[in-house]
Predict the 3D structure of the following.
Amino acid sequence: MDLGIAGQVAVITGGARGLGAATAQSLANEGAFIAVWDRDEPSAHALVREIEAAGGRALAVVREVASSDEVAAGVAQVVAAFGRIDILVNNAGFSHLGPVAEMTDAQWASVVGVHLTGAFNMARAVVPTMKAQRYGRIVNMSSLASMGADGMACYATVKAGLQGLTRALAVELGAHGITVNAVAPSLIRTERLRASPVFERLNALSLRGQAIQRDGLPEDVANAIAFFASACSGFVTGEVMFVTGGIRQLW
């Protein structure tokens, strides 16, 4: 299927590794120009080189999404390089895991700053360009954890908040030709997750609840994002797509 995004410009935050890198590769394979937005400068430049070696066009943007000034500068950098922004994937994120009573103010603020404030900053910065074009696709990375998960109070909160932001922006921006949707994965087997000391336990718990008995892979999430980013999804907005293998229980 032709996704209709060849020549379009896609900004992917947290784009250098894991789900972000898989998404960047997927959209680049469809002919989109990619802005790999990540604070990990070596990894961002490495992915840009990989995309360009395959014949694509890409740009590394090394900026912090939690800073509105950094975001404004980064968006200006993308527009200067490519002339427009058609797709925004708000994927940047991380988490502090543990009991809520042991979470510090700084830990809470840092997770909220990257996931929720970061997505707000990015959307606010790209919307004027998308409005002028009368076209845009915004995809927010939520999670199955938005439904609640032990030891993940902060992560669950921001991922649920991203669903609220998705629906609010969908209503506000639809008249301008901009759709806003979210993808909510369950446990996805990224390289970082596989290296975790708790991977085997989480993997067993996830498989126990899945209807589809195989590993969830970064490409599965990238495919869902690609649909929301495509011209094919023009009548779909304010939706949350759960990419979970049909999981029926949380752990």
Summary: The domain at 9-243 is CATH 3.40.50.720 (Rossmann fold). The chain has a mean pLDDT of 92. The radius of gyration is 17 Å. The chain has eight helices and seven strands.
